[in-house]
């Protein structure tokens, strides 16, 4: 199954001008800053964009704000994995001739929304409002922790193993000037941080920030004469298998991630051993641990052992979340696009002190909703 | 009695029988008459085969604890007085799972065991709504 292998390239990536706590900016401005920066990175003009992709807000709203008139649009919104799906959708659209230059944007003010009183409206007729919210289900910590407890029960996964991921990710963040949290932490720091939703300590949970990001995708052919060395899409896959955590078939296993990962590897003609760097959505330490199992980097239940001994830290043999991830770099609410931005930078060799030497194949993996949706991309230089 | 400030379910046409039964201390689930499978949450088309021929069935109210967490923050203001409170997913004897709160138990991982037997209790939250919750089973 070649599918979309090497049909398109990622030619421009960047964040918004600032990341962090940005009470002076709204989400749409962060879309616009990131879009401008990513187009400049690609060496493409705004008027060349004819495909627009975003999540959480209609492309009509974003297109108007940016002064764009796309002929192909996609507002797939299934949580933090959405932006990885957009790459797959953009690749299909480009391969079919439906657009030439696809712009994927994201902007979100998860932090500033709190003081602005912005709360997502809940439709009372939806199952979540009747069968989960009355019990206090509110926000990802109260959802993902349910899955983590089950994994710990079933496979003996420990708080210490989860903390390994937080500590290793923080080490990467110390090497990224754009990361919000750059002070090293220890396993004990994680285990001594306050409970948020047992079994999660504070330092098992991602940040809540304001940030934007954008990615530009075009045909492999068009990519050849652009500014930067092209990064090719080698494989991709996506799936979602439920919406509510109480409807998830097995809380220790994300079947959607198994589907998306398998397809991406098959399309690329590669396997887990061929991956030089992994950028795996870390909404929580547990999200990473489970994703590594479901993607086939280790067997089910062995995620805890796999990440032990700071294996995923700088200098370890499995470079993971080299930007500092959602745990330590930034996390405005949906992190997916930032996995792509970091992957492209690693493949171009632009990462300075955190550059993984010889990175030629990078896997990006997004998780969204209540462990609901998954999307996997395999990117490469050749 | 203090005002109830947690989210309150608003019954919809497809869920009204469930909430009416809860008021009477009965836990209803649904079974498909075509494929024979139980399911929850309520909906008029079977999620397994999309058949409209489905029936309401009174569940025994007994089940086991599938998983839980202990929440130290009240994301909804109404839960502030409850923290730390226990959310749980319970697997009913009939094989379906539902979200609930585990009550009558200390919010302590040493006291709460996945797989433990639990039974339904109903909490009257408004004159119209009673929420099914679960507690450790009194026998067996
Ligand atoms: Zn059926």
Write structural notes for this entry.
The complex is a heterodimer of chains A (382) and B (140). Chain A has helices spanning 27-42, 59-66, 82-95, 112-116, 127-131, 141-155, 159-173, 187-192, 220-223, 255-268, 285-294, 303-307, 325-329, 336-348, and strands spanning 8-15, 51-54, 72-74, 101-109, 195-198, 200-201, 210-219, 231-240, 277-280, 361-368, 373-380. By secondary structure, chain A is α/β, with parallel strands linked by helices. Chain A has a nine-stranded mixed β-sheet, sandwiched between helices. Chain B has one domain: OB fold (Dihydrolipoamide Acetyltransferase, E2P) (Beta Barrel), CATH 2.40.50. In chain B, 6% of the residues lie in helices and 36% in strands. In chain B, the strands form two sheets. A five-stranded antiparallel β-sheet of chain B has the order 6-5-4-7-8. Chain B has a three-stranded antiparallel β-sheet with strand order 2-1-3. In chain B, strand 1 and strand 2 (38-39) form a beta hairpin. The longest helix of chain B has 8 residues, at 16-23. The model of chain B has no long low-confidence stretch (mean pLDDT 95). Residues 32, 34-35, 37, 46, 48-49, 51 of chain B line the site of zinc ion.
């Amino acid at each position: 199954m070649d599918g979309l292998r090497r049909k398109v390239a990622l030619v421009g990536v960047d964040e918004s001008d600032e990341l962090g706590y940005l009470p002076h900016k709204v989400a749409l401005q962060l879309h616009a800053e990131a879009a401008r920066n990513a187009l400049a990175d690609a060496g493409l003009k705004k008027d060349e964009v004819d495909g627009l992709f975003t999540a959480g807000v209609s492309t009509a709203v974003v297109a108007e704000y940016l002064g764009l008139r796309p002929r192909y649009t996609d507002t797939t919104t299934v949580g933090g994995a959405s932006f990885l799906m957009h790459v797959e959708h953009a690749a299909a659209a480009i391969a079919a001739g439906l657009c030439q230059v696809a712009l994927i944007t994201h902007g979100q003010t998860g932090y500033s929304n709190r003081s602005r009183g912005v709360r997502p409206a809940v439709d009372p007729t939806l199952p979540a409002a009747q069968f989960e919210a009355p019990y206090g289900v509110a926000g990802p910590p109260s959802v993902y922790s349910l899955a983590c407890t089950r994994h710990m029960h079933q496979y003996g996964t420990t708080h210490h193993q989860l903390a390994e991921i937080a500590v290793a990710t923080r080490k990467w963040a110390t090497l990224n000037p754009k990361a919000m949290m750059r002070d090293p932490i220890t396993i004990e720091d994680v285990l001594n941080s306050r409970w948020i939703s047992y079994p999660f300590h504070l330092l098992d949970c991602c940040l809540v920030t304001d940030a934007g990001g954008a990615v530009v995708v075009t045909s492999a052919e068009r990519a050849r004469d652009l500014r930067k060395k092209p990064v090719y899409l080698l494989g991709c896959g996506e799936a979602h298998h439920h919406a509510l955590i109480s409807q998830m078939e097995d809380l220790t296993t994300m079947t959607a991630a198994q589907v998306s990962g398998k397809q991406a590897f098959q399309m690329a003609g590669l396997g887990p051993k061929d991956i030089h760097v992994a950028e795996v959505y870390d909404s929580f330490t547990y999200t990473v641990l489970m994703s590594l199992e479901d993607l086939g980097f280790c067997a089910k239940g062995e995620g805890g052992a796999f990440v032990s001994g700071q294996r995923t830290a700088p200098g370890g043999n499995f470079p993971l979340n080299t930007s500092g991830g959602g745990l330590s770099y930034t996390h405005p609410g949906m992190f997916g696009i930032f996995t792509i931005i970091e992957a492209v930078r690693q493949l171009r060799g632009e990462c300075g002190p955190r550059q993984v030497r010889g990175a030629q194949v990078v896997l990006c993996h997004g998780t969204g909703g209540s462990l609901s949706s998954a999307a996997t991309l395999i990117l490469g230089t050749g | 009695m203090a005002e109830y400030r947690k989210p309150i379910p608003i019954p919809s046409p497809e869920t009204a029988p469930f909430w009416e039964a809860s008021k009477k201390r009965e836990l209803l689930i649904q079974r498909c008459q075509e494929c024979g499978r139980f399911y929850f949450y309520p909906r008029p088309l079977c999620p397994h085969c999309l058949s409209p021929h489905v029936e309401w069935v009174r569940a025994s109210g007994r089940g086991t604890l599938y998983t839980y967490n202990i929440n130290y923050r009240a994301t909804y203001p109404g839960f502030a007085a409850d923290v730390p409170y226990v959310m749980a997913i319970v697997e009913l004897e009939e094989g379906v799972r539902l979200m609930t709160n585990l009550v009558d138990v200390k919010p302590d991982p040493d006291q709460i065991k996945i797989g433990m037997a639990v039974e339904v209790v109903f909490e009257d939250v408004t004159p119209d709504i009673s929420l099914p919750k679960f507690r450790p089973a009194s026998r067996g």
